[in-house]
Every structure is written in structure tokens, then in C-alpha cells.
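Entries read chain and fold; for instance:
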Amino acid sequence: MYSSSRNNRSYGQNKPRGRFQGRGSFGGGRRQPKKLDANLFIKKATPIVAVTDEAVSSVSFTDYALVEKLQRNIVDHGYVHPTPIQEQTIQYSLEGKDVIGIANTGTGKTAAFLIPLINKVFLDRNERIFIITPTRELAMQIVDEFTLLARGMDLESALCIGGANMYRQEKRLQRNPQIVIGTPGRLKDLAHRRILNLGLFRNIVLDEVDRMVDIGFLKDIQELVALLPKKRQSLFFSATIGDKERSILREFVVDPVSISVK
């Protein structure tokens, strides 16, 4: 997780990190960060920012323009320095930009999208967040992280996953929660039954897209994205991007900032 005053380790990392710095593995030279090909994405893309996994951040969470209560929640849990994926995406997300984040599991992606979006809905209660994940376990982890970061902010969430009681999920959705998190199959069922109105959500996160594609959720994701408002903020996170992931990107992001953390 984020850096803790107890153990001085960054969130999701065991090594100290710094911005755009790293030691090469041969002769102590600097490693050149790899860049993603912006031409992979059909719509115009902002220049890509690439970060190595050896960078040590000089930024703290207090450097971001976050509401005081959210700042306190971050500090209360001992989180100090953002991981590279957090450092490079949070500011762009706060500015309302679409973001493509290429990073592996365990790099702190969850907080990278939750922190700016919690800040956004706290400032405007008409905003809604829609998060699609590949597995129920990951969905539950995101809910737990949301509960921690949004403590005392009067924000509600709804967890919509298969294998759980649908009636309870429907009752939860009737309370108009600010954030809905779930897996594609259950979310699609709720949308088709008109229990879940995706037209209300102007903030969407696709998390671990490559895993969702591997599981076979490509068509489900495309159906859900088609039901969302055209004007929205879209955040896309994946460890890799292949042809199938690009097919989602074509209709998902507009003028995105692309971040690669290796």
C-alpha cells in the first residue's frame, strides 16, 4: 500500500522509488524507460509517461489538491508517498483526463483511481463511479479500499458480483450509491433488468482489462461501455495491451494520457 510511517515502504512496493530514476543492470548505467506506441490507440493520445520500477518518489500525497477529509484518511493510515503508477496518474485524473495505465498487479492501481474519484464525488454528489473488474475477489478488495479511503465522507458503495444474493444488491442500488463495483456478468444482468442505470455514470474504470479478456468478458465489457454516457471520464488499467484490448480502447477513451510502469 502507500508508504507507511511504521515501515517506510511504499504502497504495494518493497523497494524505495524515485521519479524517472533507476540503476541499470549492466555497469551501473541508467536504464532507458520503454515507451508505448501511441499509434496503437485510434483516438489522439497525449504523450506517454514511462516509469521504471526502481524510481523513488519525492512526492507525498499532501502535494495533491485533495479535500481535507480525504487527506486525513490517507494520513491516518500512514500513507505518505505514492507509488509510480499513483504519482503519474492521480494528477491527470484530478484534471478530468482519460488515462491508460499499463502496470502489473500489486503496483497500487486501486488507489491510483480511487483517490481522485473519491475526491471528485465528494465535491459533486451528482457524480457516479462505475468500476468493472475481472473477479469477485478483486471487486471486494476495491470495496474494502474504498471504505478505508472514504471513511467519514458520507459516500456509499454497491458491490455487484456473481455468486452473491442479487436481491440484496438490488436493494443496495436503490439507495443510489456514489460508486458501483462489480464483475461484468452480474453488472450486465442488473443493467438488462433496469435495476442498474448506466446512463447516470460519468466516471468509469476498467481494471485489469487483460484478465477480463482472458476470462472471456470482451463482449460483456463492450455492451456495458455502449450503455454509458458519451461524455465521461474513462480510466483504463491493464498489464498488457493486445488486439482485443485495443478494440475496447477505440470506443473507450478520448485523448488519453498513457502511463507505463515496468
Observations:
- The two ends are 18 Å apart (CA to CA).
